[in-house]
User: Fold this.
Amino acid sequence: MGKLLEVDNLYKNYTHTNNKQVIQAINGVSFTLSEGECLGVIGESGCGKSTLAKLLMALEKPSSGTIRFEGELIDKAIKKDVLLFRKKCQMIFQNPFDTFDPRNSVKNILTTALKIHGIGNSFDERVKICKDILEKSGMKPAEDFLCRYPHELSGGQLQRISILRAMLLEPRLIIADEPVSMLDVSVRAEIINMLQSIIKKSNSGMVFISHDIATTRYISTVIAVMYLGQIVEIGLTDDIIRNPQHPYTKILLSNCMSVNPLEKNNRMTIYGEPPAPSGLKEGCYFASRCYKAHCDCKTNSPAMVKIEHNHYVKCLFLNNSE
Assistant:
């Protein structure tokens, strides 16, 4: 499998307009995504997941660090051919009702995407392409859905349209930012299976951002755990779930409900709030809330350590007892 996305030492800072404080949203994030992989990014609200998504889509520029897509720096790829980059990299947003112009029908929404990227030789041909993909996805009769407007569709139906619009362009990379969090549980599995099917059929890649660990576990091949703008643990999904090493990961997983009602789960409590993302100093960012914290944790910044094949953790005291 070839490397699709390479992120190296990525930082993103914002400066508050009133007091000029520097807000550190992303702090040294690095990872690699290969073809056919889905990277799940989990963490509390405010940990930087959505900011990371915007950086990967080049909707915002990093303060420092690099992002390479198919071996090329994304800023160079955009300067060379912005339409091609947008065609290859598609984003699925959290709220499907905010994704589309309510004045446009589904037909206009889908055919416009095809027209912009030069797919189809005529309007009729583009409509046929849209009908085919709707039918294949189970939205039948297609003509009925093409004539509707966003407010005439349910959240699940509209999110499927959002995914289908991305599929029409045959992207190499999909950034899915909380794509099922606003949907009913009854339709979540269908949407997740739809996303998985895209990755398998096209051998593309996906970054799946969520706070829902159970959903992320189901769809992802690799999981990255974020805390206050940093990746504190990353590895194959099974390794992270079965053998979590960072205290923060252990706490998150202990509070994740199991599908087995007989499984014993000793829930761990996390106290306090994350530090403000401004004026962050040396030391482990999780130290003030960590049950294993030592005095060294407040002064020494932990490095990312490899503990086994493709499993990395950022913690000073991995060998400490529970």
The radius of gyration is 21 Å.
